[in-house]
Amino acid sequence: MRILVVEDERRLGAYLRKGLTESGYTVDVADNGVDGAHLASEGTYDLVVLDVMLPGKDGFEVLADLRAQRSVPVLMLTARDAVEDRIRGLTAGADDYLGKPFSFGELLARVQALLRRGTKRRDIEPTVLRMADLELDLPRRRATRSGRTLPLTAKEFNLLVLFLRRRGEVLSRTELAEQVWDINFDSDTNVVDVAVRRLRIKLDDPFQRRLLHTVRGMGYVLEERTE
Questions:
Q1: What b/e string do you get for 42-59 counting C-beta neighbours within 10 Å, with b at 16 or more?
Q2: Are β-strands 142-145 and 134-137 bridged in parallel, bridged antiparallel, or unpaired?
Q3: In the predicted structure, residue 122 carries a pLDDT above the cut 60
Q4: For the chain, what is the largest distance between any 2 Cα atoms, rounded to a whole number of angstroms?
Q5: Model's pTM, two decimal places?
């Protein structure tokens, strides 16, 4: 699962990234409200941890922008402990509120609770993704094509999920590296090309019709084509 942390205290942001990553999550960090709002609106996140006191845009503004677009769970962090601030955040659409200072254990427990709740109520994300004769069962982490199970590794499955969620969109190597591997893409690194090649061997080679295509100079796209 992917979490966005919007926190202007860089040491705290780094601490949360480290702790949440060690707990099994993929974590992006923004240190101001403008970047946080952009990432929240453009990225695909399962949860946003959002500080109130931010430069550029405060947490309430970021929350308002986010709620106008999607229903991702939001845990707000703040040094403000006033009841009025908690009421304002919850009324604006925050799912939970945690005052500073806090223990990482408490934050992690709240994150896990929100993710469980979000999974139960999420109606914008189907549990089965389909395109043509390709089907991905997300809870069972099972991929099939024409009824035949595809023997995918964990990374290959995550890569295919991203392609299927963004079907018809050309995804650059940089975006794939960031979304699936949580790394900054280095042009001297061929990890993305190697992974796509291996995925294509399992996804397309045994079948007559190709679904995963290379767009020269731009990246890759999953789509149905009449060839």
A1: eeebbbbbbbbebeebbb
A2: antiparallel
A3: no
A4: 63
A5: 0.54
Q: Which residue has the tokens 């045994």?
A: 206
Q: Which of 56, 57, 39 is nearest to 48 (CA)?
A: 39
Task: Give me the phi and psi of 23, to 5 degrees please.
Answer: -90, 5
Q: Tell me how far CA of residue 111 lies from CA of 4, 23, 159, 187, in angstroms.
A: 11, 11, 24, 35
Q: Are 157 and 205 in contact (CB under 8 A)?
A: no
Q: CA-CA distance, 63 to 174, in Å (whole number)? A: 27
Tokens of 26: 């993929």
Strands, E assignment, 52-150: 74-78, 96-99, 128-131, 134-137, 142-145, 148-149
Retrieve residue 174's tokens: 């940089």
pLDDT in tens, 21-40: 988 899 999 999 999 999 98
The answer to whether 142 and 149 have CB atoms below 8 angstroms apart is yes
- Distance, in Å, from the CA atom of 159 to the CA atom of 137, rounded to the nearest integer, reads 14
Amino acid (1-letter code) at residue 208: Q
Question: Tokens 């099994």, residue?
Answer: 24
* Dihedral sign computed on CA atoms, order 103, 2, 202, 177: negative
Structural domains of the chain in order of their starting residue, each with its CATH number: 2-121 (3.40.50.2300), 128-222 (1.10.10.10)
Q: Give the pLDDT band of residue 189 (cuts 50, 70, 90).
A: low
How confident is residue 123, by pLDDT bands cut at 50, 70 and 90? very low
Q: Which residue has the higher pLDDT, 180 or 161?
A: 161
